[in-house]
Structure formats: C-alpha cells, structure tokens
Amino acid sequence: MNRRAFLKSSFATLALPALESLSAKASSPGIKVAIAKSPTRMVCVGNSFGMYPEAFFPKQAGANYQMTKLLAPLESFRKDFTVFSHLDHDIKGGHFSVHTFLSGVKMSDAKGMPEGNMTVDQRAAEHMGAETRFPSLTVGSEDGLHGGCQMSWTRSGVRVPPIQGPRELFRKLFINDDANAQQIAADNFELNRSILDSVLDTAKSLEHRLGQKDREKLDEYFTSVRDVETSLELDKRWRSVSKPKPTMPEPEDRSLVEDIPILYDLIAIALQTDSTRVASFEMAGADFDTSFFGIKKGYHGLSHHGKLPERIEGLTTIELYQMEQFARFLEKLKSLKQAGSEQSLLDSTMVLFGSGMGNGNSHVNTDLPIILAGGGFKLGEHKVYPSEKGKRVPLCNLYLSMLQRFGVETDFFGTSTGTLSGLESIS
Fold first, then answer.
1. Are residues 364 and 318 in the same domain?
2. Are residues 334 and 372 in the same domain?
3. 323 within 8 A of 70, measured Cβ to Cβ
4. How far apart are CA 387 and CA 389, in angstroms?
5. Claim to verify: residue 166 and residue 188 sit in the same structural domain
6. N or C: which end of the chain has fewer CB within 10 A?
7. How far apart are CA 172 and CA 267, in angstroms?
8. Which residues, 6 or more positions from 400, have their beta carbon under 8 angstroms from its beta carbon?
9. Are residues 223 and 280 in the same domain?
10. Rounded-to-integer distance, Cα 74 and Cα 324, Å
C-alpha cells in the first residue's frame, strides 16, 4: 500500500471529536443520552531554571507532609497532587539538559533511541492523531538558549515552535479563516502535496545506490516527510470544520509574566472545547520580566544566587508567583466540565509541573522538582524515591505511567525501566 493511500485510510477510521451541534441533537426530547466518561488529557508545564530546592521539597514523606513555601499555594489541592523527590534523567549538561525535561534524552543521544528525543506530550499527541483539531498545543517563548525551555520535540528531533503570547493562541483557537484564506490554504495543500511527491520519488530513486550511512540519513528524511504528510492531512481534515465561539474577548500581548494567567485560561478553554487534549507550557525563561516584581536582577542571574539571601529572596518571589498561577490553573480545571461529562477537567487531565533543572545555582540536572496533579491517579502525597546511585528511579517511569493512562499502548518511553512504582490509578 502506498503512503498516501495508507494515510487516507487511517485518517478515515478515526473517531470524530465531541461537537456542540451533535450534542444538542442528542439531548433532544425523547432521546436517551448516556453520560460519557470524559476523555483523558495531558498538560505539561515547565520552566528553565528549576525551583529553589530548600523552598520546594517537603522534609516529610507520605500524605501528612508539611507544606513548604513554594507548595503553600497548592494547599487547597493537597489531595489532588503529588510531589516527587529524587526523580530525574541521570543527565549532566546544565542549561543544555533542560531541553530533555520531557524526553529524558539528549539530542546528541537521540539517534540510538527507539523514539529519538521525542517528548511525552508529542508521544501523546501522536497517539491522538486527527481526533482533535490540534493534536497538541505548545505555548511559550521562542527566545534562545536561556529564553525558552525548548520542551517539546518530535520523533524526528525537531523542536515544536511554541505559540508566543495569548493573542496568537486566541486566534489559533477561535478565529476562522475567511473564504480567500481558505482557498489559499487549499492551493498550498495541493502545492505541498505535489512537492512531497516529487522529492519522495527522487529520494526513492537514489535509495538503492546509497551506502548504509546514507541510507540511515535517508530514513531520517523519510521520517520528517511523514511528519509533514500527517500535518497536511490534518489541516485538510479540519479546514471545513468551524472553530468554537470564544467565551472571552481577544486579549492583547503584554509581558510573559503578565500573560501567564490568560495563557493558562486559554489552555483550559482549549481542553474544555476539545480543541486539543494535549498541551505544554514553557512558562518561564530568561525573558521573564523581573521588574514586574520590583526586582532589578534578571531571572537567570537570580538562579545563580551564590547562596546570597537577597538573591534567594528574589528567586523565590518569582517561583512563588509561578506556583500561585499554577494553583489558579488547577482551580480553573476543577471548576470546568466538558459537555456530556460529569467529571471536572482536573479529574480527566494529567497536569505535570516541573523543570529539567534541579538546582540552577550549581547547574545540576538531578533531583528535578516534579508535581503531578489530576488525571485519575491516586495522589495527595510526597513520594520519596531512592537517592543512592544504582537505585535511582528514572523520571521517564512517570512519563510511561502517564502515557499508559492516556491510552498509549507501550511498555517503554525514553529511558524508562517500567512504570512508576507506587503511582496507582483511581479506576
């Protein structure tokens, strides 16, 4: 079967998403409607510089731990989240290893891994296919090494460019193209399809003349082409389906710090309208405006605090704000329900919060600050895993548990050695 025929047949078998018009018809008099369980969702939130360990990790294990300064905003959600100690990817590299937060794999090591340096959100998005308009939404900062966490990576090792600012995200979610733009999109689709057919024919004609090393390069190329093909088919499928009506006015872009609440709100609406079931939020990097808090030194500089009290105070002020906004996001998810479901969005949404940086001051990528909320797991604890070398548990074990909960049929992810022990599902 050729690739185009396979794509057409596979996309034709995917289920349609929950549409408001269908829900309205189903709830007409005389028609009995079964309340469906809400589909599982995943949101991953991260920053570039971690959390100040002494203000983040509790001293006690179990359910009766004392809230730390940075966890205090989550007090009302104590039973809805778990904080983990001693989970990481066993990777060194400082800022460069922050990019492995959701994959556990450095780009330089990706070639030897079955799924490269693909991140957990993109693995879940790949599983979703075209079931929602956006297989995933990546929101955050595009700026350089320290400006963005660079959290999301595809199977072919390409960074997913983030949506920058609430205005762009709002328009992506709610604004339909006019007739002229739709015709241009249709023309571009046919042009891109023609180009893909041409380059594939050329590549295939070369394949039998290449050595092993070049064949491997060509295989990577084919993988990238398949990504483009999938994207094209997805665009074509949803082009004629209207986007949901906005429940808020179009926002203006301000600074990343000021935009965090509205970006969280838009992600929540995207989940509620079933525009997507997977989202990631690169919440903070070097472009995090510290002047908002009356702090003169930059965020990156504060992360290298040198144990100076005034710098630690500035750093934890920034981190406390991040935790307050994260708590506000959980509250939003807990207050929202999707049409046709009795569950709150928090009940059906796994929300991961963390960083690929364990301690910004010493540039170490061990003991990462990790929180998991919602999503149908038994939570409400501080889980402490072994810290001794040779006994440490990979963070990818948590990701494997999340993927299985999401419905992905796999027994590995990244550097996992199995699912995470002690993390049980409610049902």
1. yes
2. yes
3. yes
4. 7
5. no
6. C
7. 12
8. 410, 411, 412, 413, 416, 418, 419, 420
9. no
10. 8
pTM given for the model: 0.81
Q: Please state, in angstroms and rounded to a whole number, the distance separating the CA atoms of residues 398 and 103.
A: 11
Q: What is the DSSP letter of 193?
A: H
Per DSSP, what are the bridge partners of residue 14? none
Task: Please compute, for residue 139, the number of CA atoms within 13 A of its CA located in the half-sphere on the CB side.
Answer: 31
CA 60, 62, 63, 67 dihedral sign is positive
The domain of 42 spans 37-176+249-406
Does a structural domain hold residue 26? no
| 222 in the same domain as 92 | no
Antiparallel, parallel or unpaired: β 81-85 and 370-373:
antiparallel
Q: Are residues 183 and 166 in the same domain?
A: no
Name 81's bridge partners. 373
Give DSSP secondary structure letters for 18-44.
--HHHHHHHTSTT-----PPPPPEEEE
Residue pair 67/117 in contact (Cβ under 8 Å)? The answer is: no
Rounded distance between C-alpha atoms, residue 320 and residue 44, angstroms: 18
Strand-pairing partners, residue 393, are: 87
Number of domains composing the chain? 2
Residue 22 lies in a domain: no
- 357-399 tens-digit pLDDT: 999 999 899 999 999 999 999 999 999 999 998 999 999 999 9
Q: Which two tokens stand for residue 74?
A: 């989550």
326, containing H or E segment: helix 309-335
- In this structure, the answer to whether residues 397 and 359 fall within a common structural domain is yes
Segment 273-323, tens digit of pLDDT: 999 999 999 987 777 889 999 999 999 999 999 999 999 999 999 999 999
